[in-house]
């Protein structure tokens, strides 16, 4: 008999997912009369994937990489081995377990279109490669802290999010940047779990989006970012918990109203809009005081730092917002 011992950082789904949702799934399906497949397989019209040969130009993306490393962005730990960072991650569009990377290979990431709309001078629709070509690419070393207590250290390639803001030319009335991921029920079977509010949606305040540390990642370990890690575009805001780091972005919308993000709409008492890292502020169901860093020497227990170690750079963003739930 094969007995699998769960690693300490592998939190069961019933812990990572709010319990009322976890335990109600069978009853929801039964009440709605579903017995086999959850939904008829279909593709919902959406920005992002375009029709054509799957991944026809994906290999061409290698022409952008590697890019020069910006030495300004340093970390206090070794880089996580690529094998771990690319094969141990969350991507609920493909399932709620940690080994989703083979399933994510079905995603067609080229050709891929990006829509920029909302409170902007002019709506724009462009190909992701065209967007990447016009941006100043660099590599940055960032810490990444998951709300589930594990952490990694990553070399991202990409561009500062503020450069996209400059290109988008938002109006003065725009207070928030809303980002939306793809929607495809044929490829992302997790999206057939209709009790989740698909597509994945996240947001930042405009001053957060314009901060030096806010980054759009297009590459990983000197290569195009893998599909399971968010290809072709993902958000990287290293002072926030990982569920804020939306993957496979298709749309950037500028708004005067603060959005209700994906996990906030499911369990706002546990997963708030701001989601800044703070070890002194526990999650509703576990302590955040320590984290399990997945590094080249295996698992290391480390003390969780305020804003994930970036407090001196980002704490000023939250002056005047102290009454908000900043750390969930």
Descriptive overview:
By secondary structure, the chain is of the alpha+beta class. The chain has one domain: Sulfite Oxidase, Chain A, domain 2 (Alpha-Beta Complex), CATH 3.90.420. Strands 3, 4, 7, 8, 9, 11 and 12 form a seven-stranded mixed sheet that branches. The protein has a five-stranded mixed sheet with strand order 2-1-10-5-6. The longest helix has 14 residues. 41% of the residues are buried. The N terminus is likely disordered.
**SSE pattern, N- to C-terminal:** HHHHEEHEEHEEHEEEEHEEH
Going by CATH, the architecture would be Alpha-Beta Complex
CATH topology: Sulfite Oxidase, Chain A, domain 2
Sheet with the most strands, sense and barrel status? 7 strands, mixed
Question: What is the CATH C level class, in words?
Answer: Alpha Beta
Shape, per Cα inertia axes: globular
Question: Mind telling me the CATH superfamily name?
Answer: Oxidoreductase, molybdopterin-binding domain
Multimerization state? single chain
Give the strand tally: 12
**Gyration radius, in Å:** 19 Å
The assigned structural class equals: alpha+beta
Percent of sequence in beta strands: 15-25%
Instruction: Kindly state the percentage of residues in helix.
Output: 10-25%
> Could you list the spans in which at least 5 consecutive residues all have pLDDT below 50?
1-15, 19-45, 51-59
Helix run count = 9
Average pLDDT for all residues:
87
Strand and helix layout:
Elements: H1 13-16, H2 19-32, H3 82-85, H4 101-104, E1 113-118, E2 124-127, H5 128-133, E3 138-145, E4 150-160, H6 161-168, E5 176-181, E6 201-205, H7 206-209, E7 215-220, E8 223-224, E9 234-236, E10 249-255, H8 262-267, E11 290-295, E12 298-303, H9 311-314
Parallel strand pairs: 1-10, 4-11
Antiparallel strand pairs: 1-2, 3-4, 4-7, 5-6, 5-10, 7-8, 7-9, 11-12
